[in-house]
Design brief:
The complex is a heterodimer of chains A (301) and B (331). Chain A has 301 residues and is an alpha/beta fold. Chain A has nine helices and twelve strands. Chain A has an eight-stranded parallel beta barrel with strand order 1-2-3-4-5-6-7-11, surrounded by four helices. In chain A, helix 3 packs across helix 4 (98-107). By secondary structure, chain B is of the alpha/beta class. Chain B folds into two domains: 2-168 and 250-330, Alpha-Beta Barrel (TIM Barrel), CATH 3.20.20; 180-243, no CATH class. Chains A and B meet through helix 3, helix 4, helix 5, helix 6 and strand 7 of A and helix 4, helix 5, helix 6, helix 7 and strand 10 of B. Strand 8 (203-206) of chain A pairs antiparallel with strand 11 of chain B, so a sheet runs across the interface.
Chain lengths: 301, 331
């Protein structure tokens, strides 16, 4: 049976909310939990020691815990934060940029790669496997065809590299040194008043025809539609995908986890209305179409 | 500092060489490079002619193979590396780790440059590429501030090249999937951002509209000048405000920073714009050549001349330029 994972929280929530979220998540049928701030180095509601404490708690609840690194490293201070994560041996590290990659490979410790690492071909994965790669998350813009070929080619090479697929949530699409939330409020990034806290699921960016395009989330830009591969789980299982990643949201996450848990057991979950932030669904990337598209196809296609 | 200029065509390459480029960079006529435009780029015959022209003038030629091959395209990309090697280029600009490994093993004597698409934003990241693929040079992303560039330069194990002038990418390059989210092509997969095939212009009663795969990117009132609908430079609504929510249509211009970049030991400044015309390349190359020569003559008294800035502003998107992330306030 495929595993379920909870990706790192991409939004900025206050400390109590984060602790409360993971206290509940400890009870959910989730196998792996990714912890840490991956978006903005100014988000320090949780200090590194808070994350480590949370990691130990979740581990003691039977979860596999992975520490996720910041996606865009810009300063010496960012590198210091990164070293805290990469220079410990209690938890596996999810590498989200090449700086983290250097730190873990220089120490020769095992690691996994997140969706923003450009693992587009087997040759790249093979290079990383030689350096301690234990698993990889498919880059979000790649299709099921590419995924299937990658899995086949890795198998042919005799490489045991479990594949994870970002399967539910707003897709992380871009990172910048500019903060778009601060820009929206006409604030300098260095004095942003932590406005992201007011937007626990981001700021909706629409076209002038009210089409949901993106979600602004501080320095990152996410998809305006919610990626949803629930119906593609059987195809993923056939392909040999190891883990299905769900991206945390404040509202309704438990119901989402339950639904994916049902689906990975081979049952088709009923169409219960979920209490979620309103957003259209999308699955285009999976089919090699524009990411925002919703392709209505069955597994037989 | 070396002046590295773009060559989207043989006439552009010759123009760049004639107007003061120390090196030019080009790509093949397919999706193996990050400027895949119809009618642009080089086949092997044109590339050979361009390389001969540049070498006769004592200039260097780099070949950009800086998109990310997927399993289906792998052989096309490795063939591109072999073609570049056979043509005798002075360096290959690469981003993908698998391809870097291939080039390092198969053609160890041809220098490898890390493309901006390789997303190395720290000296630790540069060490990874140096230790594993022995890159000679790296092009830094446009997201770093001058202070941050200083931090990287101080401990960089390789030569550094920075962007000097041209279109401004606001997102960390090599990890921006916005274009494939709205269309089916991205810089990583196809070497295209906001591809022309998906663009549609339409006159409507409310103004001239630009669309990308039918998504409204901008709408221009009378008297407003319309620009190419690069998706991050459109006007959108956020909480009922309509504005350039991601970035204004402006160009990057770092001429003011030249003395500082020289002090930091930056090896080369790069001009963006393989999609630009030969006359644009001529003006930009000539202007930057003058600036770099001025800097070399009087490093301590370098002043940007007004006519240089006027020339560059006239060639910029919306007539506006910015120091971009080099200037911390921009963030």
């Amino acid at each position: 049976m495929m595993k379920l994972s909870l990706g790192p929280i991409l939004w900025f929530w206050d400390k109590c909310t984060v602790f409360d979220f993971y206290a509940r998540a400890a009870e959910w049928p989730i196998d792996t939990v990714y912890l840490g701030e991956t978006v903005c180095s100014r988000r320090r509601e949780l200090k590194p020691d808070d994350w480590f404490a949370l990691a130990r708690d979740l581990k003691s609840c039977g979860k596999k815990v992975v520490l996720s690194s910041l996606t865009l490293i810009e300063s010496e201070a960012d590198l210091r934060g990164l070293r805290r994560i990469c220079e410990q041996d209690d938890f596996l590290v999810e590498v989200n940029d090449q700086s983290a990659l250097q730190l873990v490979t220089a120490r020769e410790i095992p690691f996994v790669t997140g969706p923003a690492m450009n693992t587009y071909n087997a040759a790249t994965l093979k290079v990383l496997a030689g350096k301690g790669l234990q698993g990889w998350c498919l880059p979000v813009e790649l299709s099921r065809h590419t995924l299937a070929r990658l899995i086949q080619e890795l198998e042919a090479e005799g490489l045991d590299l479990p594949a994870e697929v970002f399967s539910w949530g707003f897709l992380p699409l871009a990172w910048s040194s500019r903060c778009f939330t601060a820009r929206h409020y006409n604030l300098p990034k260095d004095n942003c008043e932590f406005r992201c806290l007011q937007h626990p699921d981001g700021l909706s960016l629409r076209s002038r025809e009210s089409q949901e395009l993106f979600r602004l989330n501080g320095t990152s830009t996410l998809s305006g539609s919610r990626y949803d591969l629930l119906r593609q789980l059987p195809a993923m299982a056939d392909m040999g995908v190891s883990t299905v990643r769900l991206s945390p949201e404040l509202q309704g996450m438990e119901a989402v986890v339950q639904r994916f848990d049902t689906a990975r057991r081979g049952k088709v979950p009923a169409f219960d209305p979920l209490a979620l932030t309103e957003a259209p669904p999308c699955n285009g990337y999976w089919y090699g179409e524009p990411g925002m598209d919703r392709v209505a196809r069955t597994n037989a296609d | 500092m070396e002046l590295v200029c773009p060559a989207g065509s043989l006439p552009a390459l010759k123009t760049a060489v004639d107007n003061g480029a120390d090196a030019v960079y080009f790509g093949f006529r397919d999706n193996t490079n990050a400027r895949q435009f119809a009618g642009l780029n080089f086949n092997d015959k044109r590339a050979a002619e361009g390389i001969e022209y540049a070498h006769k003038a004592g200039k260097r030629v780099f070949c950009a193979i800086n998109t990310y091959p997927q399993p289906e395209g792998w052989q096309q990309w490795t063939r591109a590396v072999d073609r570049a090697a056979a043509l005798g280029v002075d360096a290959i600009i690469l981003a993908d780790m698998g391809l870097l490994e291939y080039a390092a093993n198969k053609h160890p004597d041809i220098p490898r440059h890390l493309s901006v698409q390789g997303s190395a934003t720290s000296y630790e990241a540069l060490r990874f590429y140096k230790d594993n693929f022995d890159i000679r040079r790296a092009v830094l992303p446009r997201v770093l501030s001058l202070d941050q560039v200083r931090g990287v330069a101080r401990q960089s194990p390789v030569e550094l090249e920075v962007f000097a002038f041209g279109s401004l990418c606001i997102m960390a390059e090599g990890r921006c999937y916005l274009s494939s989210y709205l269309t089916d092509e991205s810089p990583n997969t196809r070497g295209a951002c906001s591809p022309a095939k998906a663009v549609r212009w339409q006159e409507t009663p409310s103004g001239l509209e630009s669309r990308l795969n039918e998504v409204l990117i901008d709408r221009y009132g009378p008297g407003e000048s319309a620009g190419y609908p690069t998706l991050c430079k459109g006007r959108f609504e956020v909480e009922s405000q309509t504005y350039h929510a991601i970035e204004e249509p402006v160009s990057l211009n770092t001429m003011d920073l030249l003395p500082e970049l020289q002090k930091l030991g930056i090896s080369a400044v790069k001009i963006e714009g393989r999609q630009r015309s030969p006359s644009y390349i001529a003006d930009v190359a000539r202007t930057w050549r003058q600036a770099l020569d001025g800097l070399a003559r009087q490093p301590d008294q370098f002043e940007v001349q007004q006519n240089w800035q006027e020339t560059l502003s006239g060639l910029s998107e919306g007539g506006l330029t910015t120091l971009g992330a080099y200037h911390r306030k921009w963030k």
